[in-house]
Every structure is written in C-alpha cells, then in structure tokens.
Design a protein that fits this description.
The complex is a heterodimer of chains A (about 260) and B (about 280). Chain A has two domains: about 45 residues, no CATH class; about 200 residues, MetI-like fold (Orthogonal Bundle). Chain A has twelve helices and no strands. The longest helix of chain A has about 30 residues. Chain A is globular. By secondary structure, chain B is mostly helical. Chain B has a single domain, classed as MetI-like (MetI-like fold, Orthogonal Bundle), CATH 1.10.3720. In chain B, about 75% of the residues lie in helices and about 0% in strands. Chain B is built from 15 helices and no strands. Chain B is globular. The chains are: A mainly alpha (about 260), B mainly alpha (about 280). Chains A and B meet through helix 1, helix 4, helix 5, helix 6 and helix 7 of A and helix 1, helix 3, helix 4, helix 5 and helix 6 of B.
Chain lengths: ~260, ~280
C-alpha cells in the first residue's frame, strides 16, 4: 500500500513538473539535442543563443511592457471598483450577499467570446483596439467578479465587534474605515491585487480579439509558436512564466482551497 | 447603513452592466439577426450548413467529457494519496500544484514539446520499450481530441485535486473507525462513506471544470491549430477571419446556452448556499 502510493506520487510529480523542466531545457538547448528523432532528456550542452537572440530582437520588450502595464492597471482599478463593493457586500444580510456573489460567479462563467465580439466591434469604432486602455477595460470584466469575491471574504472575516468598539471610542465612519478596517484588510487586498494581476498577465482570448499589432506577452508567445520556432517560443514562454511562478508560490500560502472556485484557470 | 451598502455596490454593478451584460445580450441579439437587418434564424441555419461547425460541437463535447473523466479520476486518486499524513507531504503538494500556475499559452507551448512528432512523450515511451515508431499525437482528429484533453488535464487536475482534498479532509475520521469496527473493508468504506460524503466536492469540481472546458480556446488553437475547431475558436475564426459577426455570435450563443444549462443543473443539485460557501 505504502510503496504503491510512493510510486503513484512519483509518477504524478514527474508528469506535473516534467513539462516545465522541458520548457527550460529547450530554451537553453542546442537544436541538435532537440530536433532529432531521439531527443535527449537530460541537459548536455547549454547555449544561451536563443535567449540572446530573443532579447536582442526588439520583439519582446514592447509586449513585456504592454502586459506589465495592462496587468498593473487592471489590478489597481479592480481594487478601486471591487473594494467598496466588497465592503458593502460584507455588511449586507447573508441572503442578499449570497445572491450577489452568485451572480458574480455567473459573470465569471460567461463565454469570453460572447463578451469579446461586441466589445471588439465597439472598440474598433472608439479607436480603443490595440491600446492598453481598451485591454484594461476588457480584462476588468473578468477581474472584477474575482476581486469582489475574494475581497468579500476578506471584509466579512473582520469581526463586527471591532467596528462597534471603534464607534464606542468615538470614531466616525470614515475614521473607522481608514484606521481600523483598511489596515486589517491590507493582506487580503494585496493577495487580491496579485491574483487579479496574474489573471490579466496570462489572459489570451480577449487580447486576441482586441489586438491588431501591439501584442501582449501571451500573444507574442503564440506568435513564436505559430512560426514554428521551438526555441524562441521556449524563451518567451519561460520569460512570461517566471513572474507567475514567483507570485503564485507566494499566493499559495494565502489561498484557501475553496476560494479557488472563483479563480479558475 | 443600508443605503451606504447600495452606494458601494453601484460602480461595480454599473461596470459589469455596461461591459459584460450589454455585450452578452448584444451577442444574443446579433445571433438572431441577419446581415440585412431582419430578425431570423439565418445565422443558425448557416451554422448547421457549415462543414466545420458540427465538428466544433462534437470536439467541444468530446474534449470536455474526456477531460472530466481524466481529471476527476486522477484528481481523486491524487487527493486520496495526499489525504493522510506522511513525510514530505508539503513539498509533494507544492510540486503537484506547479501546473496550476502555468499560463495557458505557456502550457500549450510546453505540450507541443511533449506531444510533438519528435517530442518527449514519444521518446519516453520509446525508451520504456512501449513504442518503436513515433505517434503523431495531433495528426488525426480523434487523437488530437484526446491529446487536447490530456494537455488540459495536465494544467487543471491540480485544481480538481485541491477541491477534492478539501472535501476528503472534511469527512470525520470516526466514520471510518466505526465502519472498521463493523467489519467494512477498504472498498466498502470507499463506496459507502467516501463517495457519498464527497459528492458536494465532486459536483463542484465537475461543474467548474465542465464550464471551463466548454470555453476552451487557447489550448486547441495553439497545440493543434485551426483544423481542430471547438466552439470558441470557431466563433473567433468566423469573426476575425471571415468578418461574419452573425455566425460568430450564434456559435457563442450556443456556448452560452450550454454553460447556463450546466450551471442551472448544478444549482438544482446543490442549492445556492453550497455554491457560495
């Protein structure tokens, strides 16, 4: 029983982590090791040729900046919009709260292509295609339900007694918010910001609809893939995965299993 | 207090109304209009006649069904293996969760290295003595469907595992002890205790994954290409390649209906309180 479980878990770990190892390996391998009928599994020779080529090509800096800007914009705006909403939601009676949260979850489950089509048509008219602002506006449709969901959990975990105690001590509503509630909610706000940042950083479908030339990182990776160059793809893909791995390692400690439901993908 | 509450919700509601509800409804409307501006089922008739559309529907359903089978069985097995305490449990958990963080487009690129004709899966199978000739994993339609389901399962099985793990850990230990005292074997314990009590977690994983698999987009597009259409990519190609808004909208509408039916079925099965918790 025990040996069986060990073997099973080993196979699982190898298949979970293996592909990511391959990504790194391909990005630093000479083609002779990879593009053969029998590719080598362990790294033998290492070359930085493709890293240098991609970084020097001038095709990667613009997408990096665009994705960075869009993701940061989405994170900031999501907190600004979802913060007050979640704070209000946390005050609502439980039945109302359930109703709102449920419709937020429903928003998250709508097909991206249903949202993307009319938005693309309208943004074309408004001159918002290819702009960071347009993409931020579109990404917020996915980010806001998630942010509101996560923040509602945060705000409702702050005991009501804390607020009441502040009121007894003579704090007004504004003072209670800024010096009691917000400091207590800060970790939750940070986690939510990171989560939403990641969501935008890796978003592909809406970006495809709303982009003509100024690609984001996921679109740039797809572009390399479409061209059929395994090595440039590997470099670009690794480049966009690094911040994700760092942030999600950090996030894992804060995410309860069930709150993942609202996140998906 | 009450009017404050509504005030805080207003910006969010307004935003989602303008940028989510209006687009979804206008897609719905678009799909029931013709390019001449009349109401009608022209777009759906065009879909029915389109050589790739039926394929897209079947592919979407097949990828979803196959993916669910792989993800739920593997996720359950992994959750069961992780449920009881053992040394190195923490690090095993972290390693198993790696794919969850990987962006979809990166997963698709990585899966090209795995499932390519000269890819690493063929090489591993060759070295294990299972294959002598390489398999073209994305070559034929049905094999490509299986490959996409497996690639998707690679990324999302950890999520299913997490949900089921939480479910398993919520089952009281005493139940198993009582069952053992009454002489129940491991299989009986699994069928009579674990599975029934795990039902809420299983349903939740089933719905979350089902809805996501219906919407699958980047993975088939990047791993196989346009010759393996699913509903989302079909809608995308119809609009961006052929400028055909109405058929694109109709395809999205069908997807919407499939998702709403799934969610509706879940709400009837589970009750809203269970979803929100």
């Amino acid at each position: 029983m025990k040996a069986g479980r060990g073997l099973f878990l080993t196979v699982l770990i190898l298949s979970a982590a293996g592909p990511l190892y391959l990504l790194l390996k391909v990005s630093v391998s000479p083609p002779a090791e990879v593009m053969t009928p029998h590719p080598l599994l362990l790294p033998h020779a290492v070359t930085w040729r493709f890293w240098e080529r991609v970084l020097a090509s001038g095709q990667i800096t613009a997408p990096l900046w665009k994705s960075l800007g869009v993701a940061s914009g989405v994170a900031l705006l999501a907190l600004t919009f979802a913060g007050p909403a979640a704070y209000s939601l946390a005050q609502l009676p439980v039945r109302w709260r359930y109703g709102v949260l449920l419709s937020l979850l429903l928003c998250r489950m709508l097909p991206e292509v249903s949202v993307a089509l009319p938005v693309a048509v309208v943004f074309l008219r408004w001159g918002l295609l290819d702009t960071a602002l347009g993409l931020i506006l579109a990404h917020l449709t996915m980010a806001l339900p998630v942010a509101a969901w996560v923040l509602t959990t945060t705000f409702s975990s702050i005991p009501r007694e804390v607020q009441e105690a502040a009121a007894v001590d003579g704090c007004g509503a504004w003072r209670t918010l800024t010096s009691i509630i917000l400091p207590l909610a800060l970790p939750g706000l940070a986690v939510c910001g990171l989560l939403v940042w990641l969501l935008s950083w890796e978003e592909f479908t809406l970006a495809t609809y709303l982009t003509l030339g100024a690609k984001t990182m996921p679109l740039q990776v797809y572009y390399y893939l479409y061209q059929g160059n395994w090595f440039d793809t590997a470099v670009a893909a690794t480049l966009m995965t690094l911040p994700v791995l760092i942030l999600s390692a950090f996030l894992q400690r804060y995410l309860r299993e069930t709150s993942l439901a609202g996140v998906m993908r | 207090m009450k009017h404050y509450s509504l005030l805080g919700l207003a910006p969010l509601a307004l935003y989602l109304g303008v940028f989510t509800l209006v687009p979804v409804v206008s897609t719905l409307v678009l799909s029931f209009r013709t390019s001449e501006g009349d109401w009608g089922l022209g777009a759906f008739r065009a879909l029915a006649a389109h050589y790739q559309f039926g394929e897209a529907v079947v592919n979407t359903l097949a990828i979803t069904g196959l993916g669910l089978v792989i993800e739920l069985s593997l996720g359950l097995a992994a959750a069961a293996a992780l449920a009881s305490r053992f040394r190195a449990q923490g690090i095993v958990r972290v390693l198993l969760l790696i794919p969850l963080g990987v962006p979809t487009i990166v997963a698709a690129s990585t899966m090209r290295y795995v499932f390519g004709m000269v890819g690493y899966l063929n090489e591993v199978l060759y070295r294990l003595g299972i294959l002598t000739l390489p398999i073209d994993w994305t070559g034929s339609r049905w094999l490509a469907v299986v490959t996409v389901a497996m690639a998707d399962a690679w990324k999302v099985t950890p999520l299913v595992m997490l949900i089921l793990l939480a479910g398993l850990q919520a089952i009281p230990r005493e139940l198993y002890e009582a069952a053992r005292t009454d002489g129940a074997g491991p299989w009986q314990q699994f069928w009579r205790i674990t599975l029934p009590l795990l039902r809420p977690a299983l349903t939740m994983a089933f719905i979350i994954r089902g809805v996501d698999a219906f919407r699958i987009f980047a993975l088939p597009l990047a791993l196989v290409g346009r010759h393996l259409p699913v509903l989302s990519t079909f809608a995308y190609v119809e609009y961006l390649e052929y400028g055909n808004q109405h058929t694109s909208a109709a395809s999205s509408t069908l997807l919407l209906v499939m998702i709403l039916m799934t969610v509706g079925a879940y709400l009837r099965l589970a009750g809203p309180e269970e979803v929100v918790r």
